[in-house]
Amino acid sequence: MNLDVQSLRTFSRLAHSGAERAAGSLSQLTGVETFVKVTKIEVSTRSDVEREFREQDLVTVHIGFNGGIDGRTILAFDRAEAVQLVDALVPGAADHPDGEMATSGLKELGNIMLGGFLDGWADYLDTSIDITTPTFVDIQTEGALEDITGDSGFKMATGDDHVLAFRNQLDTDDQQVGFHIYMLPTHDSIETISHVAGEGGVGSVPIETFTSFSGMISDGAEQASDDLTAMTGMESVVEVSRLNFVPIEAVPMQLTDATRKGVVLEFMGTPSGYIAILFDEASADSVADALMPGMEADPAMQQSAIQEIGNIVTSGFIDGWANALETTIDISPPTYVDDIGSAIIDPLATELAQAQEYAFLIDSAIRTANDEFTCDIYALPNEAELREALDRLAAGAQSTQ
User: Can you give the residue ranges of the CheC-like protein domain (predicted)?
Assistant: First the structure.
């Protein structure tokens, strides 16, 4: 099965349209104004998806679908925010957040919102899609993780199973309630959607090539984590690493307005692009002090330490790409940044927006077990050059068969 960028663009528009229908349904049902903040397509391992659900305090509503396409949709809420929202639908539910009234209210929300979401896909595919009875799943419940991905996604010849997830972030105006809609189609359904969307066009590559590149990203993140551990003496692990496809204007929305310190670098080769290595303020202090003990009171020395860390982490993150692609990727000297996260990423996205409407956003997070520091890595490769890199990977895979 092949995917091309045009198919991904179509997928993105469909998922956004479906999410807008769901938002409209919620607004009519509860009177709470709801809007779609970000729509993205993620290529991720099944274990990464499950880990993300496990590490957040979420309650979810699951609905399976079958017919023209098969899979499952998931409406995921932060537990506290879910109670606020369902109380607007069922007054008094907030008084008993774990009771049947709250659970029933969430299931009703899921039924209406996810049904509206799938209606948009059915219209586009000119088919019928049936949905199952909504199921409430508390992620803290034993065994609930297995229900997240089900039989969605596709198996690789080696390594972890992958999923192609359509993820929509929705927010409300007055209550500041944020939640996500995930759509996880089966392998055969991805193929069906791709065929209707125009699979096989210019730039078409096997979906396995996207997952191979996703594996390269994970390997790069692991190397970056090892380098951070070696430099700071603080044991770190990769929390998540994934490849996202998003509208270019939505890239800054991936970050909050919290202040970040770190570095921005440009990388040149196949592919070229930009990378940001970002720490929250407390983490920046921790890693700088670990590299240069006693220098935390000297802003110039702290900046120098963070630049050195950013330079090493970037090299570890990207060197593996060059090896796998049998090419050379150079990196620029690190530019120190200290600003809100979205403001750091915005000029990078603006630069790429001159030549492309969508972006492949590489998103990796590295953490220490005791929260000594958090390191977020965001890479934005040039879309055309990334396609060339994917073509190389596809050609290399065919030559070894």
Answer: 101-137, 301-335
- Rounded Cα gap, residues 216 and 247, in angstroms: 23
Whole-number Å distance between alpha carbons of 339 and 384: 29
pLDDT in tens, 231-286: 999 999 988 788 888 989 989 888 878 899 999 999 998 889 999 999 999 999 99
**Pairwise CA distance, residues 145 & 54, whole Å:** 7
Q: Do residues 258 and 272 make contact, with C-beta atoms less than 8 angstroms apart?
A: no
User: Looking at residues 199-219, what average pLDDT do you find?
Assistant: 68
Q: What is the pLDDT of residue 334?
A: 95
* Beta pairing class for 273-280 and 374-381: antiparallel
Higher-pLDDT residue of 158 and 226 is 226
| Confidence check: pLDDT of 159 > 50 | no
H/E/C letters for each residue in the chain?
CEECHHHHHHHHHHHHHHHHHHHHHHHHHHCCCEEEEEEEEEEEEHHHHHHHHHCCCEEEEEEEEEECCCEEEEEEEEHHHHHHHHHHHCCCHHHCCCCHHHHHHHHHHHHHHHHHHHHHHHHHHCCCEEECCCEEEECCCCCCCHHHHCCCEECCCCCCCEEEEEEEEEEECCCCCEEEEEEEEEHHHHHHHHHHHCCCCCCCEEHHHHHHHHHHHHHHHHHHHHHHHHHHCCCEEEEEEEEEEEEHHHHHHHCCCCEEEEEEEEEECCCCEEEEEEEEHHHHHHHHHHHCCCCCCCHHHHHHHHHHHHHHHHHHHHHHHHHHHCCCCEECCCEEEEEEHHHHHHHHHHHHHCCCCEEEEEEEEEEECCCCCEEEEEEEECHHHHHHHHHHHHHHHHHCC
